[in-house]
Amino acid sequence: MALMCDYSLEYLGGAQTAFLQQARVLADAGHEVTVIAPRPRGPVPALEDHPRIDMEPVDFSLTLPAVGLPLIRTSAGLQRRLASVLRRRGVEVLHCHSEFGLVRAGFRAARRSGIPVVLTVHTFFWQALMPLQPVAAALLRGFYRWLTNGGITRASLGERPVDAALRNMTLTTARLADAVVSPSAHQARHLRAAGLVDVVVVPNTFRIDAEPVPLPGRGPTDPLRLAWIGRCVAEKRLLPFLEAVSRASRRLGPGRLQVSVIGDGLQLAEAKAAARGLEGVEFLGRVDNATVRGLVSRAHLTCLSSFGFDNQPMTVVESVLLGRGVFYVDPELREGLATCGYMAPAPDIDSMADALVELAEDPAIAEKLSRAAGGAAELFLPASFEASSRRLYERLLAHGGPAD
Asked: For the stretch 296-311, what's the b/e string if a residue is b when 16 or more beta carbons lie within 10 angstroms of its beta carbon?
């Protein structure tokens, strides 16, 4: 099988992490995996030295600023090259994880080769806060048509024109797939409401080669250690979260909250400025997966402050598998959080601050969530992911290839 995505595998993001983890998990289970992605600048540790993973890098000349997206345009030459790769590698199923030029070329190559195509949608909830929305949306649609050498749907998928245009990019590509994978049930409902029929829920996975570390003990006045993990961008709401930490700290007193912010992005400098003078907050930037696991294990809880954006965050997967509860604000996020999540009563800053104060003052809450994580972990285990994926692939292959 082949896994394909347009994203740089070196860029910090949940889609990239999920993609790399799934490649490893499928290869560990005995599948021969070909990874087709933009050529990385250096080694990709998750793909190195695995006897059943082969990398087919695709060269590119330009990268879209700010988001780090390699610009690979759909072309006849690229389609021929991808078709050759699929034949040479004996690929039976193409599983894609994005919706831009490389993947659209991969779809066309697979179609010509009679190979079924699966698309994992990592978010159908694109958000873009910018001025001149109608103009920006028109430019975005034109750019997407140029990049993919194809059309784009015009479904009503959001109040803001740019949000709708971004979501239509995903819908356009998803409509071309033989099956669509959503890591969460709530996103699957939105995809079906947009007209997609064959949508399968397969939660993300993470291969962790260690047993969960017991939760660090603490008394009612000891610091509550929190780990915030993700891209420092507006849709992840790091700035409102830090303001909530500030307000909670003023109520609790100094030293009661310790927050490690792990990740980088456009708002990192602004976040550092906002936290200047706030005791107990550290910014660690981008770190490798092993370091993330260590930081999660030293924390009492991880934090997820996004609202209305995330599908099924990898932060939840890692936290649950490492035996940690999750502080979150979005009621749509359910997988893994029904028993080991602590949801703020509302997404606003004061509500987050109230929840943080309660968590700091009652150590039993984090202890209860940590105990519950063991039961929730089965949902995200590599074996569960591989079994669900294998059933989907076998169904598509038994159908005889892509539908007309």
From this structure: bbebbbbbbbbbebbb
Measure the CA–CA gap between 79 and 85, rounded to whole angstroms.
10
Q: How far apart are CA 95 and CA 181, in angstroms?
A: 10
Residues 336-393: tens digit of each pLDDT: 998 999 999 999 999 999 999 999 999 999 999 999 998 889 999 999 999 999 999 9
Q: Is 73's pLDDT higher than 90?
A: yes
CA distances from 372 to 36, 51, 157, 208 (A): 38, 36, 36, 18
| Bridge pairing between strands 2-4 and 301-304 | unpaired
Q: Give the pLDDT mean for 314-341.
A: 94
User: pTM of this prediction?
Assistant: 0.90
Strand partners, 301: 226, 325
Q: Return left, alpha or beta for 83; rule: phi > 0 is left, psi -120 to 50 is alpha, else beta.
A: alpha
pLDDT tens figures, 186-231: 999 999 999 999 999 999 999 887 788 899 889 888 999 999 999 8
- Starting at the edge strand found earlier in the chain, the sheet holding 94-96 runs 53-58, 33-38, 2-4, 94-96, 117-120, 179-182, 199-201
**Chain centre to alpha carbon of residue 380:** 14
What's the CA gap between 5 and 3, in Å, rounded? Answer: 7
> What stretch of H or E contains 303?
strand 301-304
Which residue type is seen at 327?
Answer: F
Tally DSSP H helices, then E strands, for the chain: 13, 15
pLDDT in tens, 136-161: 999 999 999 999 999 999 999 988 99
Residue 142 — φ and ψ, nearest 5°?
Answer: -65, -40
Beta strand 94-96 pairing with 179-182: unpaired
- 233: tokens are 């961008």
Are 271 and 198 in contact, with CB atoms under 8 Å apart? no
Q: Which among 251, 204, 209 has a CA at the least distance from the CA of 380?
A: 204
Bridge partners, 224 (sequence order): 257
Under DSSP, the state recorded for 149 is T
* Cβ 95 vs Cβ 120: under 8 Å: yes
Q: Where are the alpha helices (DSSP H) in 13-75?
A: 14-28
Q: Do the Cβ atoms of 298 and 216 come closer than 8 Å?
A: yes
